[in-house]
Amino acid sequence: MVANHGLLKGMNPVTTLVSMAIITLFVLCGVFFTEQTAALFTAVSGWILSYLKWYYIGIVAIFLFFCIWLAFSRYGNLRLGDDDSRPEYSNFSWFSMLFSAGMGIGLVFWSIAEPIYHFQSNPFITEGLTPEAAQVAMRLTFFHWGLHPWAIYVVVGLSLAYFSYRKKLPLTIRSALYPLIGKKMYGPIGHAVDVLAVFGTVFGVATSLGLGVTQMNTGLNTMFGMEVSLSNQIILIAVISAIATISVVSGVGKGVKILSEVNMWLTIGILVFLLCFGPTRYLLGAVLQSTGDYLGNVLSLSTWTDANENSQWQSWWTAFYWGWWMSWAPFVGMFIARISKGRTIREFIVGVLLVPTMLGFIWLTLFGGTAIYLELFHQVTNEAGELVAAVGQAGIVDAVKADVTSALYVTLDKLDAGFMGTIAAFMATLLIATYFITSSDSGTLVVTTILSMGNEHPPTAHRVAWGLGEGAVAAILLLVGGLKGLQTAAITAALPFSLVMIVMMWGLMRSLKEEKLTPAVYAPAKLVTN
């Protein structure tokens, strides 16, 4: 299944060449037919979100219920590996890598912008910029970044970890198909599934890198006066992609692990800053209140399809997010599987579902809650010299409308923390860079692992090539303005992959039931061919 000589030594020739051809084709279309490519995928994703949003919402709800049931089932004590295997990484390192790969740049980018958007208007309020609107804004933001995306990752990651480490199959997406199609997974069906996973990973990572570098450029402009321009953004992509490539060459146990831990410490540092210099009492209360509010409404939100009014809001937000998370599932799921060997099924599900979700809630509350507080309780001096309420006039709402990337820095500036505010802005920009690097090197590791048929230490030359290639894709998308069009392409890829995820659940349950009857493991196919 993998070549033992030539340029593709150690890689599956079919999936590697097909993946390279498809990605090159999409990039060329983005360069030479930018408007047409963007229009095509915008139309396709628009059709999916308009006519199949009920399916996206329903299937993601099923993923979450499946995960909760499985965590408390009789299969929870089974280990992802041999019965005597134990975790390779400490809990802190594991949680750090989970959070960095699963959310990363996106959470930094949207942690203020999304709550502020919902604070102004959403389907559940009659008037924006009110205390009620603030509560609903945090509820919806929690919903989009909470249990549901991590349930998507659990389904993929658990299936891959189980079949790879317990059933001794290759660490690739196709292995989850084994209980249903047997050795046919090594044929065209398996190739197609792996290529789809590579496509979603490359463009998902490239899109996030594009988002991250624009926000980083804004931060460097705020602190050092660097001009916000495409040329500077491409330079930033080149520099950070090179660092990411060095990191991924060093492997998970060194570069990726160390950078993920740096991410976690930077995250803790900036959260402590917000807690100390922000509206502390309000934020502490908001964490508890918003979490309880989310848990009290999560069931109804999970099945709400806006059937009566069919507004565009849900297509723009919830259905869009669910498709986006599913397009990222091959990447994040594979990476989570790679770092979870030796953990029990229950430990895996509880850890992946709850810990990153709670950290995300704290992050969203401290960032988004601070921005909402500043807008909700902003005061100005009137002509009589009296302080009067000026809700929505703090400048953050205007910043989100004008330039989403500036919302983070405007919020930090409005805290008026002086020198500490400058340090916080620097830490935030550094955090974007480290998340950028971990997203890139994690994505590179996943792509090369898939293409090498599950080799946890893929050939170095291919790790370098794909690492630099992801940066090149991100730079090209920014250069030609095709970022949005190819982002919608990744969302479109979520539709067929959602069917793969259904098969994953089915195959996992079938194998778990068989294991209770017989402890035999599947014999792996011979991977190296002449």
Descriptive tags:
mainly alpha, globular, Transporter, BCCT family, single chain, transmembrane helix, 2 strands, Amino acid/polyamine transporter I, BCCT_transptr, two-stranded antiparallel sheet, 74% helix, 21 helices, 530 residues
CATH topology-level fold name: Amino acid/polyamine transporter I
Q: Work out the helicity level.
A: over 70%
Unreliable sequence segments? 517-523, 525-530
Number of strands: 2
Which range does the strand content fall in?
under 5%
CATH class: Mainly Alpha
The overall average pLDDT, rounded, is 85
Distance between the termini: 9 Å
The number of helical elements comes to 21
Strands side by side in the biggest sheet: 1-2
Sheet with the most strands, sense and barrel status: 2 strands, antiparallel
Can you name the CATH architecture?
A: Up-down Bundle
How many structurally independent domains? 1
Helices and strands, in order, run as HHHHHHHHHHHHHHHHEEHHHHH
